[in-house]
Design goal:
Radius of gyration: 18 Å
Helix content: 40-55%
Number of domains: 1
Distance between the termini: 50 Å
Low-confidence stretches: 1-23, 33-37
Strand order of the largest sheet: 3-2-1-4-5
Mean pLDDT: 80
CATH topology: Nucleotidyltransferase, domain 5
Length: 206
């Protein structure tokens, strides 16, 4: 369609400008918290990336010392899906969407599930890699520290060795039975689990 722009709302004039942004130095309180290995005071954004739905969650430490939070799933809801499926528009939308979540949830750090390449067709692998890169860029541009978790790594962190390859259905069941977490979209549940793995790793000084 002639004349249609693919720049998302609130996007910078050029993403090259992001390279000029200087990161703010870590505060003394944040440095002490990290040295102590405690998640108290942290607001952890969990992201389970997907081409259709992406799960998100925000975990904080409750007064009891256990994590509590909110979670959900997001996807493009516009009418022009054909335009969205063009690479530039889709990536620009993802940049804006992650920035929206950061503004809304105000995380102090993020935990992102890594993508698996080589298990699907090359075109899908390329699309997933592009999306993952944009998400990382959006977090960096908004000065949110993040850790990338492989799909088996966060499962082992939560449930121990030998549990790295459990199926999504078992993840959903365990999350419901152990923490009361349930959502109509499995992506939201997995996003909670990724954030909880990050919370647990910080708690244990990893």
């Amino acid at each position: 369609m002639v004349g249609m722009r693919s720049t998302p709302p609130h996007a910078p004039a050029t993403y090259a400008d992001l390279a000029l942004k200087a990161k703010k130095p870590e505060s003394a309180a944040a440095a002490a918290r990290r040295a102590a290995g405690t998640p108290r005071g942290e607001r952890i954004l969990g992201l389970d990336l997907g081409l259709e739905w992406t799960g998100w969650s925000l975990l904080v430490t409750s007064k009891s010392g256990e994590p509590s939070g909110q979670y959900g799933a997001t996807r493009y809801a516009g009418k022009d899906k054909q335009e969205f499926n063009k690479g530039g528009y889709r990536l620009a939308w993802w940049m804006a969407e992650v920035e929206r979540l950061v503004r809304l949830l105000q995380p102090t750090r993020a935990a992102v599930e890594d993508y698996i390449l080589g298990t699907v067709n090359p075109r899908t692998s390329a699309t997933v890699a592009e999306m993952g890169g944009v998400v990382r860029m959006a977090l960096w541009a908004n000065e949110v520290q993040y850790r990338v978790w492989g799909p088996s790594a966060w499962k082992k962190e939560l449930w121990g060795e030998g549990r790295g390859n459990i199926r999504k259905a078992e993840v959903v069941q365990r999350a419901r039975e152990e923490w009361g977490v349930q959502h109509e979209k499995e992506d939201a549940v997995e996003a909670y689990c990724v954030a909880r793995a990050e919370w647990q790793a910080i708690r244990d000084g990893r």
